[in-house]
Amino acid sequence: MTARILVVDDTELSHDDFLRLLADAPELELVAEVENEIMAIEQARKLQPEVIIMDLNMPYSEGIAALQRVIDENPDTKVICLTMQSDLRYVDECLRAGCVGYLLKDCAHEELVQAIRSVLADKIYLSKDLQEKELKAHVVLKR
Question: Which CATH class is domain 3-142?
Answer without folding.
Answer: alpha beta
